[in-house]
């Protein structure tokens, strides 16, 4: 038991006589390393309590456990909403316990380290149960709960009372499973918890304990007609499990208040310790931040890093998402402002009562900003009415500062995706794009065809009606078609199809409608532009950030500046630090997008029902607008350094909507050069003119 385990490096050896075989890795690292999930919870319920107590458990503590299932003996039971129910079809208590243990072993025995079994009339403090299993060794056979004596049995043997729940380790479950059939046939008992306890004792020689490895399993037996709000005993507050419970909601509220009071008291204790220790630091008391224990505000190193404040009143916001100077305060922002004002009044009254009692008359000024190092900061100028104990009132203005700190970071569960998905590139081309097609095809061939990347290309030739009439005599896209033919000759297994479209207004939505109908519903589209440089650095993020029926990806490409203005005849810098200075991320462009055909078709169907395919509406929309307004998917919009475009002056079609045309013009203007480069160019021009 005291053997010293030391790591040993196993050298890699591959037999040169055997053909190389690609190693298949597991989906997750923890699977390859043999990690298990921590805790699985089983709740035993019945026909009489399924829709009452079991539902109450589900609404109070179920979401605090990582995995919880309900087990019943009902046959074809109607499952309440939001619950996972396993029906065994036999309501005999012993049979239910036998089937439940067998089911847990078969389906979860290899995935979890601990198994917590409770009844639906048991209230378990989820956080304390989870904390308990983190302090126990998984290598021991554990049978932990409220130990009870058998009636007329051995004085040394104990079983765990089912009403207060009990904890079983994975190692114990693995040893117990081969004996379950024997226990079912040989052990007679009325109570399922006694039957299980006798089974574990007879075949494994392990008895129930209430204390193990320095950890205590505290329980509390709730008397009949007890009011949870009046329970103040230490045993009650320290209990991991309470039984029997008739009103789960009142009990949950009481324990939630106890945990909240403990959290506030712990915060006060920690703040006091910080105050006491601050005087011993080099900065002294001057280094004490407000609020105590929260990170200090972000200190900008230059004027470009200054975090601006947003001004608001109770009715309006003066920093709007669409860029307008003033908009109505509504939704989450309105609820946020109301909550902050109420919190400010509550804190003022808590500090000055009973001498003064404040009531709000008006919010004079409101400011807020998001500091990524600490959270949301607020500054409020409040017009208050202060009433003294004698009833005298006075109106005064008071400035208060508040912080809504960043709380615990949570990992949002996302569906699993792989980098093996085939990407279907879609490239719309107009006559103005002909000068850039050759470079696009060269980059596509070098970075996808030569590397055998799982990507295909479809070209979309957009003919003006005048050019479409003369296509038999002069085809404006003849040169592009010749380039495609050369690629297909060079790569015999590759076919690059093209689609010809005649239109004066190349609406992105209309073009996508045509392409969508010609591909399967599970196709992953990458809508590209002719200036896009295709490479592996972006294709893989496109695959990973696009999730069917969950998320679409609209990357913000990096746009290089005009080299004539940036370098002015000098050699372009090649170092990585100067790279980002030679361009910017073009937030005005939505030309690139990654999405699944099925998601587009679903959103497009909703759009069609809303606008009845009005051409003028479709011409004013992009694919981004379709997903934004007509899908419930996540829209992931982020800068993508792997998506780089060379400088080019885009041609903005005045036939498009005013907003799309304005965005195109802004993209061209901001893509010329940075402010410092433009200032230097103007300075040199003025110098030249003056001489």
TrEMBL record:
E.C. number(s) listed in UniProt: 2.4.1.-
Keyword Repeat: no
One Pfam family this sequence matches: CHGN
Single GO term (MF): glucuronosyl-N-acetylgalactosaminyl-proteoglycan 4-beta-N-acetylgalactosaminyltransferase activity
Taxonomic superkingdom: Eukaryota
UniProt entry keywords in alphabetical sequence: Glycoprotein, Golgi apparatus, Membrane, Signal-anchor, Transferase, Transmembrane, Transmembrane helix
Main localization (coarse): Golgi
GO cellular component, one term: Golgi cisterna membrane
Localization: Golgi apparatus, Golgi stack membrane
Membrane association type: Single-pass type II membrane protein
Glycoprotein in keyword set: yes
Family classification: Belongs to the chondroitin N-acetylgalactosaminyltransferase family.
Protein name: Hexosyltransferase
Organism per entry: Dryobates pubescens (Downy woodpecker)
